[in-house]
Amino acid sequence: MNEVTIWKLKRIENKIRQKDVADHLGISASYVSLYEDGKVPWDQELVRRYRQFIVNYKGADK
Fold first, then answer.
1. Rounded to whole angstroms, how far apart are CA atoms 39 and 62?
2. What gap in Å lies between CA 60 and CA 40, rounded to an integer?
3. pLDDT the model gives residue 62
4. Are 22 and 28 in contact (CB under 8 A)?
5. Which of 3, 24, 32, 44 lies in the 20 to 30 Å Cα band around 12?
6. What does pTM read for this prediction?
7. What are the CA-CA distances from residue 19 to residues 1, 2, 11, 12, 23 (Å)?
8. Distances in Å between the alpha carbon of 35 and those of 4, 59, 60, 61?
9. What DSSP string describes 1-59?
10. What is the pLDDT of residues 2-47, one digit of tens each?
């Protein structure tokens, strides 16, 4: 399992929608999907912010 897949599963586990990530990063949900499916690479800064959002996410039920 690659690192992108691991982070995608963490996002899903925490019930974070792609739209939530996209809104935080200022990109489209489809661009998040393309990244998580391994179809487009992201620069290191965007990856860092993506992971940071997942780690620090405080949802409505958390």
1. 31
2. 30
3. 45
4. yes
5. 44
6. 0.90
7. 24, 22, 11, 12, 6
8. 8, 22, 26, 27
9. --HHHHHHHHHHHTT--HHHHHHHHTS-HHHHHHHHTTSS---HHHHHHHHHHHHH---
10. 999 999 999 999 999 999 999 999 999 999 999 999 999 999 999 9
Give the pLDDT of residue 15: 96
Q: What span, in angstroms and rounded, lies between the C-alpha atoms of 16 and 8?
A: 10
Give the position of tokens 């620069």: 43
Amino acid at site 23: D
The amino acid sitting at 17 is R
